[in-house]
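User: Can you help me understand a structure? I only have the sequence.
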Amino acid sequence: MNRFATVRQIAAAIHSGEVNARKVIENTLEVLNREDRNIHSVTHILTHEALTQADAIDALRASGATLPPLAGVPFGVKDLFDVTGHVTTAGSIVLRNNPPAQQDAVVVQRLKAAGAIPVATLNMDEFAYGFATENAHYGVTFNPRDTTRMAGGSSGGSAAAVAAGFLPFTLGSDTNGSIRVPAALCGVWGLKSTLGRLPCEGAYPFSSSLDVVGHFSNTLDDLITTFHVMDNTFPDPEPAFAALRIARLGGWFATNLSGPYRNALDKVCAELAVRHTVELPEVATARAASFLITAAEGGNLHLPRLRKQAAEYDPATSDRLLAGAMLPADTYLRAQRFRRWFRAQVHALFRDEADVLIAPAVMCEAPRRDEASVTVNGKNLSARANLGLYTQPLSLPGLPVLAVPLRNPGGLPLGLQLVAAPDREASLFAVARQLERSGLSGYSSSTKD
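Assistant: Let's start by predicting it. Here is the structure, written out as tokens:
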């Protein structure tokens, strides 16, 4: 199979007998072992389990039985998903002495039931706290489009493995942008579904009231197909594109953009005939509230362990977790009260003005790893802390957000956020299909478009 073969292509080839599942998995494992050293996206390779599952699929086909829809399709999981028989390390050495997982995370169970095969766990910021995938224990993940550049985080290993063509889809998680940021920087599709729509059971938590599990792929069709498997429901019908009210987010989301990003967004809005711009209220406060809730929930989750094992954490992680644990309870409660108010304002906007909102995912192309800064309000600030400028506020109301890779001939990837009301993922897919038809979305499988 072609290294950049899609989910649908792989499944079709196995169903038809063109190739067997074991061969697909052997080829995938060979690529990971040979080529991942160039980008460091993988933390553990699941060789024995993957080959065992592949053999079971081949035996099923040999018996004449009907194969499940994703039979033999390899995938990887962010290193915070439970995989039976393996210790879930969440990008840290702190958990290395925990007992192995007794069962797979629920979304992994659903994918395996559909025939998909997990082949690797993938690198991340320690305990999902960061936008860089700079991991003190497992190394830094490089951007496959340009290895001098950041892959983003915290699901950087998942995005990079897809962008490099190692895997057709991967699992990640998103609390404040951990799917959307690396999807944008690496030029792949990524979905943060509605808060609570996909089960988080078996995914190591970061911020329990904001965490969302999601995934990456190189094609929209693959993203949609695997989403419906994880959702475990029949697909919602996609609305007609012409029936959707689409608006551009202005104000906060129109400042600090690089020239290429501004031009790309203008092209998208022109192609979609978007003439309406809306602004969300108190966006700076929304970003701060999201940050405070994350810090407080993450800090209190880790505080008992930090009291005993602080030296085993990456200092950059432990310092932020400790600071979050020290936040006064009143600060956390005020942030949650603001969250309820902000959510009501956003819901009113979707009711009265728009079905889908368009916003940038990040403010610039992937920063260099040796100069990891971004420009915000004329100042050079840490990329690791500020790449979520446009994603953090949109996490607060629990909305579904689709990260769309935009074509940028001769340049690095650019990423768009399409945002809808809760449980309206189908509207996002309809707009994304229109962008795909127009030729504005998608990123080539090479480092140059």
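Now, to help you interpret it: The two ends are 22 Å apart (CA to CA). Confidence is low (pLDDT under 50) at residues 445-449. Let me know which part you'd like to focus on.
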